[in-house]
Amino acid sequence: MGTRKKFSAAEQELLRANPYTEKVTEHQISFTLAFKEAFWRLSVEGCTGNMALRKLGYDPELLGFERVHNITKRIRRAGKSPEGIQPAPKSRMRISREQFGAAELEKMSRRESERRMQQEIVYLQQQMAFLKKLMRQPESADSDTSRMEKGNGNANKQKNTPYTAFEAEYGVFFR
Predict the structure, then answer these.
(1) How far apart are CA 72 and CA 54, in angstroms?
(2) Which of 32, 56, 61, 164 is the most exposed place for a label (fewest CB within 10 A)?
């Protein structure tokens, strides 16, 4: 994010006035699906990123070089993908502790709190799957080294324990 310019309040209002703008904050801008499809169509017709933005009512200088470059790159990548141009996801999987506190749960409707908890469960399951994959990688490397160190007594001690070093050290066991 380093060199991106921030949008002033006046610039944010100007960007919000464009029907292709979904959301604008001081740091970022989100576009509608219609914008992405129109931008892709113009790109296929041979327009550069700056030309396409101008035709769709945006000032490339206001957005800045880095944003224009990234918008162009992402929309072209999405347009070439088998899925094509997709709308932005409505919610993110990660839920902050403040959003998921007990006080917040009381304020939410039952349906909303259930949806949030389901999202958190899915997120935690993904984390567990990732950690399990990490745990399996060192085991295969250890087996290669233990074959080379057959005569070494330390290799056999490590091999006899049912847990990996990570599991034993942190008290987290995956089985």
Answers:
(1) 13
(2) 61
